[in-house]
Amino acid sequence: MKTRIGILGLGGVGGYFGGLLAKTYFDSDVIEIIFIARGETQKAIAQNGLKIISDTNETTVFPNLVSNNPNEIGNLDYLICATKTYDIESSFKSIKNCITPDTVILPLYNGVDATERIQKLFPETTILQGCVYIVSMIVSPGIIKKIGVYEKLFFGSKNTLVSKLNELQSILEKSAIESYQVENIEETIWEKFIFISALASATSYLNQNIGGILNNSVNKAIYISLLNEIGSVAIAKGLAMPNDIVAQTIIKLEKTPKDATSSMHRDFLANRKTEVTSLTEYVVNEGLKYGVTTPTYQRIFEKLSK
After folding, report:
1. pLDDT digit string (tens) for 196-232?
2. How far is C-alpha 170 from the geometric centre of its chain's CA atoms?
3. pLDDT of residue 283
4. CA-CA-CA-CA torsion for 220, 225, 231, 236, nearest 10 degrees?
5. Most CB atoms within 10 A, among 99, 189, 237, 288?
6. What are the φ/ψ torsions at residue 103 (nearest 5 degrees)?
7. How many CB atoms lie within 10 A of CB 227?
8. Residue 279, C-beta contacts closer than 8 angstroms, at least 6 positions apart
9. Which string of DSSP letters, residue by residue, matches 24-42?
10. Nearest Cα to Cα of residue 304 among 273, 172, 229, 62
11. Considering 126, 154, 183, which residue would you say is the last residue of a domain?
12. Cα separation of 282 and 109, whole Å?
């Protein structure tokens, strides 16, 4: 029996990492990669494959199957999901019969509550925790562009068999995916959330790319204020965050291409639905819950939610 791995959400994250898996295991006798897609994305990949464009090259890959039909997809051993956070519940509806108590689900979302939300849908299934650092985006259906060389994937779980985690790690490593099993995965996810939440909120509010944030003293002050507020929320929640989390996050941003921006900012510019609920309002609500004031987040959320 082949190990069957589904990729749900073929955007910048799912498309890129799913593409690396498809490239490695297309002719495999032991692993099968299934892209779960519909509409124009399904049609484009079925006809032309999935194209991944980087700074130095481009490659086209084909999964073993691209489908949104649960009867074609069948039961999955692993599911890597990377849709938008507002689509978490709805995206699982059509494939709920493909998920069994033996399926291991790896969520790779921008928010921090995905594991909890998916666990409510599938209480008997193993749901890992995970996050990624990467700058990548959809150019058009079936075409993903990655900017820069920085890409890291972190995952872990406190209640999953080590053998399952090791198997997943081996699968990822063989696809040249820089991945790390992390014991304190919740803190790692929050470090990423601090990075992406403040960046998404600042770039969208100021309508600036990363260079426009770092190279303008007023804009950078707003960004740092966001970092301080969300860092205080994390500490109030009891998470063991580094004392220099603000400085660390700024260094990460300085290593990111200056002409890049957040996915939420791109969605605002394109008049698409955004993740403002998960990336901005969530921090305001958690601040209220734990008695932490977040005036900058509050001001930005009020503007972005209009």
Report:
1. 999 999 999 999 999 999 999 999 999 999 999 999 9
2. 20
3. 98
4. 180
5. 189
6. -70, 140
7. 24
8. 85, 110, 111, 196, 197, 200, 201, 264
9. HHTT-SSEEEEEE--HHHH
10. 273
11. 183
12. 14
* Model confidence pTM above 0.90: yes
- As a whole number of angstroms, the distance between CA 189 and CA 191 comes to 5
Neighbouring residues of 158: CB distance < 8 A, sequence distance ≥ 6 = 185
In 3D space, the residue among 80, 89, 301, 116 whose CA is nearest the CA of residue 200 turns out to be: 301
Distance of alpha carbon 194 from alpha carbon 286, whole angstroms: 13
Residue type, 194: I
User: Given the structure tokens 């394109």, which residue do they identify?
Assistant: 270
Domain harbouring 216, CATH code? 1.10.1040.10
Report the C-alpha gap between 263 and 299 in whole angstroms.
Answer: 20
pLDDT for 150 beyond 90: no
Residues 100, 218: one domain?
Answer: no
Contact status, residue 131 vs residue 151, Cβ threshold 8 Å:
no
| 178 and 191 co-located in one domain | no
* Nearest CA among 150, 120, 122 for reference residue 135: 150
Q: 33 and 176 share a domain?
A: yes
Q: What is the DSSP letter of 2?
A: -
* Residues 177 and 29 placed together within one structural domain of the fold: yes
Q: Locate 285 and state its tokens.
A: 């609500």
**So what's the pLDDT on residue 105?**
98
Q: 52 with 78: CB under 8 angstroms?
A: no
How many Å is the Cα radius of gyration of the chain?
19
Residue carrying structure tokens 């500490």: 235
Residue 30's pLDDT band (boundaries 50, 70, 90)? very high
Domain count, the chain: 2
Of 198 and 94, the one with more pLDDT: 198
Instruction: Read off the tokens for 5.
Output: 């791995």
